[in-house]
TrEMBL record:
The lineage of its organism: Bacteria, Pseudomonadati, Pseudomonadota, Alphaproteobacteria, Hyphomicrobiales. It comes from Rhizobium leguminosarum bv. viciae. It comes from the Bacteria. This is Uncharacterized protein.
Amino acid sequence: MQGKTPLTIKEILAAVDPAAGHSMVWFPNDVAIRAVTVREYLRQLPLHPSLTEMVHPTRPRGTADEVVAVIGIPAMAAFAAIGMSSSPKAISRLGDDAVLHAFLSVSEITFTTRDVDAFFGAEQKKAAARTSKRKPSEKSDEVPQDSGLLTLVRDAAEYTARSGRDGFDLSPAALIFARRTYGEVDRDQRISMARAFAAVMGDKNSAESLGDI
């Protein structure tokens, strides 16, 4: 894990238990939040298309002002309300700064912001994140083929089909961990099956690695 920022306890907990309550101490009465599931996120997109920027950025979001300009206060309040089990109106009444903090807090535990390869101990080179050159029309429902939104949907659907567990009921962060873990388990099972077959066919090295079967 050298050279990489380690995952925090909050990030691991959010991935393992998406419904866990996380404290936001700066809010009055110590409000608790939870991660938003893939299904809940997708249901917000027809009402707030700007939320697609969270998985497929087309404009810079390096500062708080840029986040507000790109996502918009109404969309941010709607997203944050899900994680706070509240309503967009109730959150909006607290002011724009509160909406921004709530949005960022819920986003932090919903989407993985760090490379999880270090968590699994695998050293894999990933392509640098690219900002799409194509910005979808705000008046169109068209989704670019390279959209991170399509990737999210495909990942959730694939995990559902392979594992039998509804991937859309997981948060995006939890889905990443679940797919990665399931993939490693599936790979190990395939290797064991291949070695067992080879051992039965007379391969001594495979037989020794498996032991008595």
